[in-house]
Each structure stands twice: as structure tokens, then as C-alpha cells.
Amino acid sequence: MKRISVRMAALAAATSAAWAAGAVGAPKEVVIGEQCDRTGPTQLVGVNLCPAVRDYIDLINSQGGVEGYKIKLDEIDNEYKVPPAIEAYEREKAEGAVSIMLYGTPQTQALAQKLDEDKIPGTSPGFGTAAAANGARYPYVFPIAASYWSQGAAAVKFVKDKLGGLEGKKIAYIYYDNPAGHEPLPILEDLQKLEKFELKTFAVPPPGVEMGAQILDIAQRFRPDFVIAHVFGRSPSVMIKELKGAGYPLSKVIGLVWASAESDVMAAGGWAVAEGYHTIQFAGVGDNYPVRKEIVAMYKKEGKEPPKEMASTVYYNRGLLEAAVHVEAIRNALKATHGAPPTGQDVKKGFEAIRDVTLGGLVPPIELSATDHEGGGWVQVFQVKGGQFVKETDWFKAYPEVLAKELKAAE
Questions:
Q1: Once rounded to an integer, what is the mean pLDDT over residues 227-247?
Q2: Which of 80, 118, 246, 341 could form an SS bridge with 219, CB 3.0 to 4.6 Å?
Q3: Residues 13, 110 share a domain
Q4: Rounded CA gap, 12 and 95, in Å?
Q5: Residue span of the structural domain in which 248 resides
């Protein structure tokens, strides 16, 4: 711990010196901290999402940066573990980060109070504490995309539309047994009472690769009308294979956002195996977006081939979303400070001033405010069909009155 403290002090001194140098003509920088998992149980996400963040920041810097500043990205692998996440946060804070890209629900929950104390905004798109949508209660945590509550509500709405009603129907909820897996439960339980369906839950213990007993119980004993799946890391591919093997139709399964990528389909055995599977997305899927074309052009200009990670469009595109929102918040902050180096408080206000960010249709119009840190909770549903993800719905959100009630109760 002493060695870590010395290193942090040295980093802080170096950061101060860098800002002083900036005053006499050296390139000006603003630091964003990024946490990632490239080696832990959710590395299938991290190895595709995190390179997209780097690519977007490189793209912005190649275009001159933001309001006269270059963006410095400080990525640290937290291995999807809480202690490394806390250490990574302290290192990034010492390096002068004015915003942090968080990674993982347990990690976000562990860092929420630190963000408030240090007045540094952190983002948790599609994960973390759903109650953080309430900016009054969580002033420095920004979900910036559909929370687990919004995802759970959207899944129920989708199932209701598919079945033509829910009264008397049976829904199974299979989930990764950690804080992330538990997050949607209050919403599902509220909607069970409202819509009068039978809900049965099936917990999968970490690391989520053993679920034969749960799948057997679902497919042969409970026999639900639909399955809502909230598994991630290596779990989605295992679940798809197990359900397929048990004879349960994947057309009656919808996965929340982290059960929903090309890598999950390929690990399950390919597109033919996963045919029919529904997935929820908070960012667009596929290649046909201007920002992706700009990144390809950037690589070509440098005489390089685009990175292989771009093929995993689900996770890669989410990385673009997260990076873009941080850049926009910093842009807003720098405009407000008239070019003076922004603080975490300035960038917090910059997040809350974001309006109508769409990345050329990659994401729904994101609008944040001091009270709404989620940005609306919009999602789309895609289905595995004919060797690709095919869009089934336009952007929608579900049961806003139920979500508002839970947010109120969480105050």
C-alpha cells in the first residue's frame, strides 16, 4: 500500500506539472479514466467494447480534439473484481481524470460514494445501480442508457406483445447470481402483480458456466410461455446451447443487453444454433453508421486495416456510445469554462447538458438532466434470423409509471 501511495503522489505531481506546462504552450489535455475487463469473467465483453472507446478517442484527437484540448484516455483492467476497480479508480483520480468510465455492477456500487465525495462523474451504461437514474440521489453516477430496471420492463412489454397478453402466463427469469442479476427483480415482481403472470426465478452461480439443472427445470418442469435471460460473460453461449439441447424454442427467449452479442452466438455454435433468439439493445447493431465509417477511414489513412474487434458490432458500438457521451460532456464543460481546464464538477454539469446525441442513428436521442441521468431508458429488440441480428422493433420504453414508482421508493 505504501508503494501505491508513493506512485499516486508522483502521478499527481506529474499531472500538476503537465497543466503548468500547458499554460506556457504545451498541448492541453483532459484525462478520462476507463475501466475495463480484458482478463476476467466478462472479458468477452471487454475485449470488444474497450477498443471501441480507444478508437473513438483517437478519432476525436485526429480531428483536432475538443475545444482546443486533446483527450488522454487512461484504461485500466479491473478484471471484473471490486478491489482492482477501487485501486484503478484511485490511480485514475491521481492522474487527473475528470470523468470515469465504470465497468461492472458490483464495481459501480462500490465506487458510487467515492465519486460523490471526489466530485468526479462516472458512467455505467446498461449496468450498475438502476436507482442512479435519479440524479438527485446519485449526483455523480450516470447510467446514460437503459438501466436494468428499464431493460426488465422492456422485456416484459415485448413478451406481452408477443403473447397478446400476460394474465395467467408463465415467465421464467434466469439470471447470473450477483448484484447485476438481482437488479431487475423489483421491476419484474411489480409487473408480475400488475399483469397477473406467474414468475419463477432461476439463479446461475458465478462464473455462470454450469446451468444444466436450471435449464432442465425450465424446459421440462416449469415449461414457461417465455424466458427472460439476464446472463453475461461466458453464460449466454452456455444458456443458448443448453436451451437448444433441451428442446426449448429460442424464439421464446429474450436476453437483456449483456446476453446479446455476436460473440455469444458464435460461442454457442453459430447463427444456426441461435436462430430465433431475441436480444435487447441500447445501441444500434451492425456496420451501417457514419461514425464506424469514419473510424475505418482513420485506419486506412494511417495505412492500417480496421481492427478485428469491429466485427463484434454489438459490444463495439456500445463502446462508441460511451466514449461519445464523455466527449460531449467535456465539450459542454469546456464551453461553460470558456476553455479553462474543467473540473469533475464542470464535467458533471456537461453531462447534464447533453441533448439529442444520436451518433447518426447509432443511439436513440440521449437527453440528460440534473434529475434524469439515464436519458430515457430507450431500447430496441433484435432477433437472430438468417445468420444475422435483424431489428424487430423501433426504439421504445416500457412501464414508465412503474419505473417512476421504484425510483421514488429508492430515494
A1: 97
A2: 246
A3: yes
A4: 6
A5: 148-281+379-409
Write the pLDDT tens digit of every residue in 289-314.
999 999 999 999 999 999 999 999 99
Check: CB of residue 149 under 8 Å from CB of residue 406.
Answer: yes
The x, y and z cell numbers of residue 253, run together, are: 427467449
CA distances from 349 to 121, 134, 346, 370 (A): 9, 15, 5, 8
* Complete DSSP assignment for 198-258: EEEEEEE-TT----HHHHHIIIIII--SEEEEE--TTHHHHHHHHHHHTT--GGGEEE-GG
Residues 25 and 161 in one domain: no
* Assigned domain for 316 exists: yes
Peptide bond into 207 cis (omega under 30): yes
Between CA 367 and CA 5 the distance in angstroms is 39
Give Cβ neighbours of residue 411 (< 8 Å, ≥ 6 apart).
Answer: 134, 136, 137
Question: In the prediction, which pLDDT does 22 show?
Answer: 44
Which CATH number does the domain housing residue 125 bear? Answer: 3.40.50.2300
30 and 116 share a domain?
A: yes
